[in-house]
Prior knowledge:
The chain is an alpha+beta fold. The protein has four domains: 2-100, N Utilization Substance Protein A, Chain:P, domain 4; 103-167, CATH 2.40.50.140; 170-245, K homology (KH) domain (GMP Synthetase, Chain A, domain 3, 2-Layer Sandwich); 311-400, DNA polymerase, domain 1. 50% of the residues lie in helices and 22% in strands. The protein is elongated, with a radius of gyration of 35 Å.
Amino acid sequence: MSQELLRIVDNIARDKNIDKESIFVDLEEAMVSAVRKHFAEPDGDIVVSIDRATGQVSAAKDNEQIDIRQLGRIPAQTAKQVMIQRIRADERDSIYAEFMQRKGQIISGTIVRYEGGTLIVSLGHSTEGFMPKGEQIMGQTHRPGERIRCLILDVKETSSQVKIILSRTHPDFIRRLFESEVPEIVEKIIEIRVLAREAGYRTKVAVTSYDDKVDPVGACVGVRGSRIKNIVEELGGEKIDIVRWNESSQVLVANALMPAKVSEIALCFELGRATVVVEEDQLSLAIGKHGQNVRLAARLTGWDIDILTPQEYNQGIEQLTSSVKTVEGADDIMVDKLIALGIITILDLADVGPEPLVNELKIDAEVAERLVEAAEKEAERIEAESKQKQAEKELAQQTNVTGYKQEED
Length: 409
């Protein structure tokens, strides 16, 4: 019996991943409950101890030895119920501690089923993870029995279970995949400085190298694209742009907009806005499908990015110049100063306001006020003109449709 008890403890510890000492303590407390039940003495001095080496059980009530095997069926049932409750609690604590330690890491599991859109994943040791619909990559479906890799996003402890929340859409999932494929990242030779992601569609990753001999982009791509290919396959074909990090915001914005080629960049620190000029043939590439490329570039760099063609850029400068020249005390040099500050259009000037003009460009306060007022008026005039043209266009279209119907009749 003693050796069998030790084997049972070993099996439970291994199967449930629970510390053996915790199981021995649980057994002792369960037996104490059984003795109390048998003698109906809730306040009696009862001690039960199990020899950890031999499995021998000794019990005493009020310092008198008792044979625990002669207590009967009902106390044994009590001991069993207490034991089950305590082992479940220990198992929850063990699972919680293990997965809290692994939070933010990638784990492999097996698809079990879908429950109302939530994906249930077996993580081993009778432990299941939950991947809500919002954490699943859009367009991907999984079958029961399929192996899957995901990020341990969060671990929550409830009264009945430990809930392990999994994700494949979180940006850190990409970060961990790169760590698993690119040893230089783990070795701190290369660092992922920032990344921006629209899960299932596209991710932009800015990387830097702390070793001049190591090309960060080349290392992440791998020989013949082997490293990036593995990551893209794991993500079901999601596009990944790896760009070189640069402390210069101008260079970083240009890199982030790749594969588009940038002609010119003007940064307005006051507005956090980067005005980027690209040739006509690069415009759709710079903006990307549904604006995805410029949107991710903005998130990657932290700049609000406006993309203009050379014609739009020149038109903005012309309107700005015309507006400035209407103000007494302003000249062409002032226009150059505004452009140097990243103010490219009258809308920029209206948004910035007079204060930066006084502080940064040392313009007289009254002149600065007049410049902004002139820009606001010009912006209102252009907006009204634009609305009128739009209204005339819509009216013309309606007239054409009506005329066409009359001809049919």
